[in-house]
Amino acid sequence: MLRARVLKGPVGEEKQFFVLRWFEAMFEGWRRAYQWSLDWVLRYRSFMLMMTFATIAGTAWLYVVVPKGFFPAEDAGFLFGIIEAKTDIAFDSMTKLQRKIATIYTPAN
To answer: If residue 64 lies in a helix (H) or strand (E), which one and from where to where?
Structure first.
């Protein structure tokens, strides 16, 4: 009832604003597409039921087949790290720090 008072429709030969006509045409197209797809699904119920079961079976198969490990199987054993120091450190001092860290993290053979 409030819609009838606030959003009054066109009276007589009055034309709607073009934006409203465009939205109305777009909504009508969506409605027709939904009606067509719903009619198609209801017409081919058995096919849609088979597709539903096939989708469920495919999902279950993918769950079994796809690897779920946190680390990939082809892990090469590399370790990547970032070393931070003061901004006024000399290049030679930074190189010594990096070598020291590398010897600590290098695995013993």
So the answer is: helix 45-65
